[in-house]
Design goal:
alpha/beta, about 35% helix, globular
Length: about 220
């Protein structure tokens, strides 16, 4: 979902190049250890929206590094505002296209990739734009460590069914699958961090679909 343009967000992003990397050169890998100032494990959220999910993760896990990969400048600005307010030194914002994820991150450099409420692109002619299409999965496989995995959530049953099939066809292993995440065992529900969209959809009674999948060796 596209956010309304906020001039203050654009200004804020431009004032903080140390926290927001904008349109980097896809032919040059980013030195994430230099940007974070350490070599802690990295986790990526592809399409972070207003950033509640990724900022909560960063706040709860100071020993890990997080990257919000977000195309919209307004969204990047909203995430940045929260990052600065909470002093989240372990969060970086990358304003770029998910299709270039394997250009932005070295091979075997990422522990987890989060795909939360991605655009379903329901029309058949747009299949290649879905973030669980085989070409995206191939790029995630390059970026993830051998024991890394993908965590995917959506309220769209069609996208969920498609994603399960796409990942299965790619030879991935499913570690967790749920067709109603908010009604799983209490210990699973308690660990779940809701996104802004998730909270809205669940409040309407919509089931939340989720899965964790890894690439078999």
């Amino acid at each position: 979902m596209r956010l309304r343009n906020k001039p203050w967000a654009v200004k804020l992003v431009n004032e903080h190049p140390e926290s927001v990397l904008q349109n980097p050169d896809p032919d040059k890998k980013i030195d994430w250890a230099a940007r974070f100032g350490n070599d802690n494990p990295i986790e990526i959220e592809v399409g972070s929206g207003k950033g509640h999910f990724i900022t909560t993760l960063a706040e709860n896990n100071p020993d890990k590094n997080y990257v919000a990969l977000e195309l919209q400048t307004t969204a990047a600005g909203i995430i940045l505002k929260t990052k600065l307010e909470k002093g989240l030194d372990n969060l970086q914002i990358l304003r770029g296209d998910a299709a270039d994820i394997n250009c932005f991150f070295p091979e075997n450099s990422t522990n987890v990739i989060y795909l939360n409420f991605s655009d379903p692109w329901p029309k058949t002619r747009h299949e290649k734009r879905r973030l669980t299409y085989k070409s995206f999965l191939a790029k995630y496989q390059q970026v993830l460590t051998n024991d890394g995995h993908i965590e995917f959530k959506t309220d769209n049953s069609g996208l969920f069914a498609y994603s399960v099939q796409s990942m299965n066809n790619f030879g991935m292993h499913f570690d967790f699958v749920s067709v109603d995440l908010h009604h799983e065992k209490p210990e699973i529900v308690e660990k779940n961090i809701e996104t802004e969209y998730e909270h809205k959809f669940a409040a309407k009674g919509n089931p939340i679909y989720a899965l964790h999948a890894s690439f078999e060796a």
